[in-house]
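Take a look at the protein record below and flag anything odd:
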Amino acid sequence: MCRNHDSSALVGTRWVEAGLALFTAALGGVVMIGSHASGIGWGDAGPEPGYFPFYIGLLLTTASLANLLLTLLRWRALGEAFVSRGAFRQVLAVFLPIALYVAAMPFTGIYLASAGFIAWFMWRDRQREKSYGFLTIVAVAGGATLASYLIFALWFKVPLQAGPLAMLGGLLR
């Protein structure tokens, strides 16, 4: 029987469980080390600054190591896929444009980045559904961006980073 490549497991549940347990145990360890530097004792005025964070870090580390032990005890039972290649591809199809949107904002400003972001998703869906025309995409992306400008910059007086559009002068400030 030929296995569908898109539905094959990208990573198993056992590895995600073990990795997350180790990560949160390490995070708890970092909290404990940082708290120890601040003082974890009990002074004349009460607890030192690191007292409560230290015990929270200790609790987090202990719970994480218990989860790791449970994962190791149930290793065979946790053999199912955590995420398939097809599902991960769908997550990346949303995550990568969002990451590019956030990365572009310092250079383009929020208005151009938002227009591009909205237009990209509408164009991508248009390719699948054949539902949006070019003018509709431009109108929605431009209209949403204009609405953001009107609401935040003009009405609420909270100017957002305009990027290159700020060169248009006082219009966008």
Q: What stands out?
A: The chain has four helices and four strands. The CA atoms of residues 85 and 112 lie 33 Å apart. Residues 85-129 form the longest helix (45 residues). The chain has a mean pLDDT of 88.
